[in-house]
## 1
Amino acid sequence: MATENEIIYNWNCNRVDVYPTQGEFTNVIHKIHYVVTGGINYSTVPITAMCMGTIPLNTDGITNFVPFDELTSEQTVNWTKTGMGEEMVFAIESDIANQIEALKNPVSITMVVPDPPYEAPLI
């Protein structure tokens, strides 16, 4: 079980762009759309933040092709993280952590000044 300040990250990389055919292969993934969500249970109130984007994949010289109907979410997450590199993965998760910290401890908030009570005009 996660502690109150432990951020749990969820990488969703299930949406992909494919080439219908490339050489002898069909449905070749060339771009992965990712949505990374991080969240904590802060004093029993969940706080979440997210980052999304796309990453292109190099499809030149495919050696270990996996047919589309045999793919798993775990594989697309691994391909996404590998394509990004450790520094970008760290930067994305750090950005989410910073967003969550700003929600926990805002430096500025928006408030609405109340209007005076409405009084009907005298006729």
## 2
Amino acid sequence: MGMLQLNAILGSLVVTLGFWLVWGQLPALLFALVGVGVAAFLLWRAETIGAVWAWATLLLGVESFAWPVATMVQVKLSGDQGAQPTDEQMALILTAVLFGLFSSIFWLTFSYGLFKRMVWKQPEEGDPTGALESAPDRKQNEKARKK
């Protein structure tokens, strides 16, 4: 098993754990399907280990953003139609909103940084492939071209 596949499996475990934290009462088979689906997605979309974790953190950010919404829906479905939520339910919603939005912003920003790090260089003359080039290499090449 290669490092890319190992990281894809670890990334899918992390994303599945986040999914379990949001939707804890679902059957275990569904969590297994989510884990396999995320692992397959990561292997399909990511060509490098950095890309695996960029996609995994993006999915964590989306999950974190969905947590407050899921909590509000669960509270609404558990109560009577038209009845006001109890103080305990309101505290649960407040906690989900505060921590969900904070962690969502963190994971989405982290993911953005990882994706931004994987910048595609512009194809140069004689280089039709447009291969990946890291930011420090790009700066060195720009300095060399200016000289």
